[in-house]
Design goal:
Enzyme class: transferase
Protein name: histidine kinase
Region (Disordered): 1-43
Biased composition (Low complexity): 1-11
Number of domains: 2
Radius of gyration: 42 Å
Largest sheet: 5 strands, mixed
Strand content: 5-15%
EC number: 2.7.13.3
Structural class: alpha/beta
Number of strands: 7
Shape: elongated
Strand order of the largest sheet: 3-4-5-7-6
Length: 466
């Protein structure tokens, strides 16, 4: 370092100044791109709102308007709903004076006729926002009238005819409004009428004019195809949305019917048990109660026979509810006494669950209530595992005033666990509501402020308890 120090003051006297310009020249290239990048960063915030606004027009363009409804009437933003009126108004304000000036100065048409044609060919564009088909009829009639009047004008020779440039611009804008509103059949008819009118007028074209009917015919077809395609896309999306809503309603209805059939199959076991007890008691009554009179024995025999017939009818109904190829469940129907095993299986799957059961709550409970309470807890735990894995969950079952109170509360999800899909019916709240409705109870469900969920069911122990 000491050797470099003395050499630096000696360098200015020597004819080797190359090291000094090199540092000065090095920053120059690096400083040059800086303003460019800064300007690039400056342009992006200006262009981004414009691009976002243009992208936001995609949805209104694809959304078909209803009859007699303004274009973009269903757009989400106010400026989008006003945009068709602004475009039509700007077109009228620019095309009307231009049409009058060009017809008067270039085509040498009379001032009165030029003003009338300027109004008739442009003002209907405002009507096209809501009623494009009548606006098209007015504009086409005005354009034809203008072409006929320009046949005898002094300045028509060497100029576009039958459609002036201003008429072509206004007509194409009208086609945009028309294509976004009307059906394909109407668009094809408008296009063919435009071509036919141009051919008829072309047959009487003044000498030396530039025929523009083919140009308008081609441009009109292109605009109608593009706008009609946008409308067709919007119609297709609307039909898909309607079908999805119908399918969703059908799925909900099918889920409800499947859950009701499942409940009916489960209740078969409950009712069949009681009917079997009635049959056995009626058949064994003459042996358990000796000395019974003959009419009484016949009455018990009739009761037993009716019970057996009822069991047979229930089995046939159960066959229909099971459907083709469905096997019946061979395990006994669960109840509140099996809740500890259910909670234990859920905990083994990785879900933290605490169970609190009042002493003797599972004793003397009607079988329908017993089964419904178990299924509600089962489905609630399955939903917790499915939608809030790892959330701490509390299950409480108590008896109060002739009712069984079932409460399942879980906190927000924490970590993922092994799904316990087989623990529930797969129908969620639909099945819970149907089971509560079966027993004449009430169900209260909803989210908690901390992000958890609560399921509370009241199941009456007797029919008049509800």
């Amino acid at each position: 370092m000491t050797s470099e120090g003395p050499s630096s003051p000696a360098d200015p006297t020597t004819p080797s100044p190359s090291p000094s310009p090199s540092p000065s020249s090095a920053p120059a290239p690096s400083s040059a791109p800086a303003p460019a990048s800064a300007s690039g960063r400056r342009r992006r915030p200006v262009l981004r709102p414009v691009l976002d606004a243009l992208g936001g027009l995609a949805v209104p363009l694809r959304t078909p308007a209803r009859a007699a409804e303004p274009l973009f009437a269903q757009a989400p933003k106010r400026w989008q709903r006003w945009l068709p009126y602004l475009i039509a108004g700007a077109a009228v304000l620019s095309l009307m004076p231009t049409t009058i000036v060009v017809l008067t100065n270039d085509y040498k048409a009379g001032g009165g006729w030029a003003g009338a044609l300027g109004v008739a060919q442009t003002v209907p564009l405002l009507l096209a926002v809501t009623r494009p088909l009548p606006a098209w009829a007015v504009v086409l009639a005005a354009d034809v009238l203008g072409a006929v009047l320009l046949v005898g004008a002094d300045g028509t020779a060497g100029r576009p005819w039958p459609w002036t440039p201003m008429a072509i611009v206004g007509y194409l804008l009208l086609m945009v409004f028309l294509g976004l509103r009307e059906s394909v059949r109407i668009l094809v008819g408008v296009w063919l009428v435009t071509g036919a009118v141009g051919v008829v007028l072309g047959a009487v074209a003044p000498a030396g004019t530039t025929n523009t009917h083919a140009l308008l015919f081609v441009l009109c077809g292109v605009v109608l195809v593009m706008t009609g395609a946008l409308r067709g896309l919007g119609d297709a999306r609307q039909r898909i949305a309607e079908q999805e809503s119908i399918s969703e309603a059908e799925r909900a209805r099918r889920t409800l019917l499947e859950e009701r059939a499942r409940i009916a199959r489960e209740l078969h076991d409950v009712v069949a048990h009681h009917m079997s007890v009635i049959t056995v008691q009626a058949d064994s009554a003459p042996y358990r109660l000796p000395g019974m009179a003959e009419p009484v024995q016949q009455e018990f025999a009739a009761i037993a026979e009716s019970a057996r017939e009822s069991l047979g009818e229930m089995r046939r109904l159960l066959t229909v509810l099971r459907g083709d190829g469905a096997d019946g469940e061979r395990a006994p129907q669960p109840g509140l006494s099996r809740l500890p095993q259910l909670v234990e299986a859920t905990v083994r799957a990785g879900q933290p669950v605490e169970l609190s059961m009042a002493t003797g709550v599972a004793e003397g409970v009607p079988q329908a209530v017993d089964l419904s309470a178990y299924r509600i807890v089962q489905e609630a735990l399955a939903n917790v595992v499915r939608h809030a894995p790892g959330a701490p969950t509390r299950v409480s079952v108590t008896a109060d005033g002739g009712e069984v109170l079932v409460l399942v509360v879980n906190g927000p999800a924490r970590d993922s666990v092994v799904p316990l899909e087989s623990s529930g019916t797969g129908h969620g709240l639909v099945g819970m509501r149907e089971r509560v409705r079966l027993t004449g109870g009430t169900l209260d469900t909803g989210p908690l402020p901390d992000g958890g969920f609560r399921v509370a069911a009241r199941l009456p122990l007797t029919e008049d308890a509800s």
